[in-house]
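Researcher: Go.
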Amino acid sequence: MNTAQFTPAGTLTAEDLGRIHLIGVGGVGMSGLARLFLTRGLPVSGSELREWPSLAGMRALGGTIHMTHEPSNLDGVDTVVYSSAIPQDHVEMVEARRRGLRVLHRSEALAAAMTGRRTVAIAGTHGKTTTTSMVTMVLQQAGADPSFVIGGEISEVGSGAHHGTGEHFVVEADESDRSFLIYRPYVSVITNIEADHLNTYGDLATLEAAFAEFARLTDPDGFIVTCADDPGGRRLAQTLRAEGRRVHTYGEAADADLRLSDVVSSAQGVRYLAEIDGRSLGEFRLPVPGRHMGLNSASAVLTAYLLGLPVEAAEAALAAFPGVRRRFERKGVADGVLVYDEYAYHPTSMTLAIRTLREVAGEGRLIVVFQPYRLYRTRDLQAEIAAALGLADELVLLEVFGPGELRQPGEGAAALVEAVPLPADRKVFVGSWEDAPVEVARRARPGDVVVTMGAPPISLMGDELLAALSARAGDAAGGAGGSAATAG
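Model: Structure:
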């Protein structure tokens, strides 16, 4: 995608947008933006075709939600907001241009909301949603009351966006379509850089160049944070430091500015010691497991430290961190089977998630229900995705979710399932959504862990899995009251 399609951040404010209409308002990114505008007291409407869980909250805040896509939805609207998932010939896009309405990409509307604030923008191939959530909670704990827009919901807060009274605006910066290049951050955090979104960038070198361009947009009075343990992050730090830019690093590497040591991860969570410039910052604990979670949290600690916030605020916020919805989210338990949901779809994040879930499963087995996200990614990274899925004990694979993509012969989940290094009886490709809960109920045993993983729609399957497992328990008990599902 050409960056010329986006207008760089300027003096336009959210209040200048008037009555705002968001196409596809139920999507993760769009729903957060809608909630931000609503909590700011702005008039918001949106259109959707599916009753996403976030829509109820928008209605409660006064938003108008149309469950159709049609021209009349734009009556009385001043600004129409769309995402990269919305085609230019969408009926509401065509009507907006016909009426001469202001039409903004999601990132442009978000940039307007940031005007006048010190933006803390978190980017990276993996971990940016969790890291954005952690930075937000640390600032909240310190009493800074930041505004924020996150590509997911903080489990305890129940929201992915908020209009705060403080000077900081924390935002997850999306590199997938280059739209992060319109932001002008005060702080830029880059968690890692790996090959992804190559339909936009073509190759890793071009992707790395875009991250460097993003970092160079940082306010000269601000700073840049990168991960010393990530090869792409190290290369970026070296490049930027050679240009005289203010860069700080974190990680377990000996030369990291904020260095982690004695990292321990278990089913109960992760803990580590941290020091900066040879000075101990003490021990940090998170109630969610995974070494990668500890690494994400270290970027939040370093950011808070450099902003002059109390280290104690970071320690307290992380100790209470509840996780993020769709990131290692516990959905419930039924008939002795624990069900989680996880957003991972890139092989690196999939591998980290599956290894962490194995810690939780203990003596039980791990069953992965995976919906691949995008045909190009599934094709280009098939070997790596297959290797990650091979770490599971059992695999139930759905067809690729790739809206707007044209499937070529031999592409899709049927080819992927053949590449997964599991015995034939421990992996299956299911042709329909309804078949997946049936397969899980047939395969799962008490003590097992099941995780739905991948593209956004799979997040809706957790309740169906719990229902199928509960029904199985009821059938086994002869209808005399088997084991019920427990949420949370």
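Model: The longest helix spans residues 291-306.
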